[in-house]
């Protein structure tokens, strides 16, 4: 677990930002063991590829110095050297190919594992955390951040290893030939080597700005697309267009600046190479006259210099990529290091028996991370099969109560019990089987009504879905739709009306066949006919089950067996509707405002 976890603000995702580079790599390898598999062989191949590169200059030197004797060319020797060079070139090519293939296969396998683990963990993160972390940012962590790691591991990583190897081996060979010429080469490249860190920092800053600008650009574009209706309704196209234009201009200038740094370091690499070659020739000839070096060695040097050029030209870019990849890796590891606070007891957990569930809140308190208490001293017992309506002013804590009841969050104090068992001890599978939450806005996927209903019971047949629709009195509505169960609901169910979306949500809930139904009643008004249909479906859905409804309608409170009144996080009144109306208090006020609205 990362060092930052302990300091993490409750309910937020670990950013992993303070994880040192080496620790990041170690943790990353632990999470994706595939990255380590066969790494030894891959590195061996990298060594073969590197050594192969320097064999050619050596054979040239040998041919020039020993193949062209005073007695004329030694054909046998030259052929042997030529063959050696050919074998070296072939070996380098094959080794590079196999190495790269192995590397990207392993890297992609390892990163697929990382993605899968991160996605699974996102599911286990407390709902609260998912709300706190911007959802888009979570998505980017498991997609583009992993891509950055992948890019680097496949291209940058191996290039870095081979490059460093190339420079080391070339330097050793140069030293064997002539330390003076080696010094010339190193002096020519020294300014670039020394400024690599400086370049890398500039590049990193520049690309950091580019990434931020990409984010700004995406949100500037997403806003008018997602909120197209509002943008048009308020005729603010010009303002949003201006934001997009500004974002595009800012992105363009940041990118140009970043590319400028890359181009500069690239050119400097070429310049250093040219200088080194010239220096080698001048000093080499001078040393040659002093009989300190052979012609073949000078030519070999010219070849060896080229082994320096590419690595240093790409060096700054590789360093930046490495930094980006590490940052990406840290962010994904950060997800995995965020504890799944809602621990599922799994197979060891209790299993709820079938039949209406008894509910109890025992001294429950709750506060959102860093916030004040939202629920206090909640003691509430609901007998099996009872129909309870929870009412209260907006912000009084009703939805929070529902989330605790369905274990989307755990209480900060006290406990929630179902059939006398703490919800924390009930296996998730059993909990999801027996308890259903129908939220205000049921989330519909862009698929058919059939697919959406099947979220309630995966694999439900058409006749089972129809049976549910018949029991809820929805079959004539379903048959009245243009394509029945095959009707596509559009993104987030946009092709249906708000009331129809609720009907699909009820159908889905009915297919679960729960023993405890928790409903967050929709506030949006629907046409009277649909309203009646919904009321009838709800009535049937609740029958024979324990139900807790967050009520916004007078009729729901009137029909409930018991009304629970929440005010500023506490239960202030309980009882039947008529009794509470007579009692007055908070319920009296709520009732009066309902009557004023609809009476
Ligand atoms: N994710 C959250 N993070 C921080 N505070 C929250 C969060 N959700 C709700 N709250 C706060 O908790 C309090 C209770 O909210 P809750 O949603 O339970 O009220 P409610 O009674 O259901 O309101 P409404 O009828 O408007 O839905 C409010 O003050 C709200 O600001």
TrEMBL record:
Residue ranges constituting the ABC transporter domain according to the UniProt record: 359-593
Q: State whether keyword Mitochondrion applies.
A: no
Q: Which residues cross the membrane?
A: 39-60, 80-99, 152-177, 183-199, 261-287, 293-312
Q: How does it sit in the membrane?
A: Multi-pass membrane protein
Q: Where in the cell is it found?
A: Cell membrane
One Pfam entry name: ABC_tran
Q: Which residues form the ABC transmembrane type-1 domain?
A: 41-324
Q: Name one GO cellular component term.
A: plasma membrane
- GO molecular function term, any single one: ATPase-coupled lipid transmembrane transporter activity
Keywords on this record? ATP-binding, Cell inner membrane, Cell membrane, Membrane, Nucleotide-binding, Transmembrane, Transmembrane helix, Transport
Keyword Translocase among record annotations:
no
Listed name of the protein: ABC transporter ATP-binding protein
Q: Which organism is it from?
A: Nocardioides cavernaquae
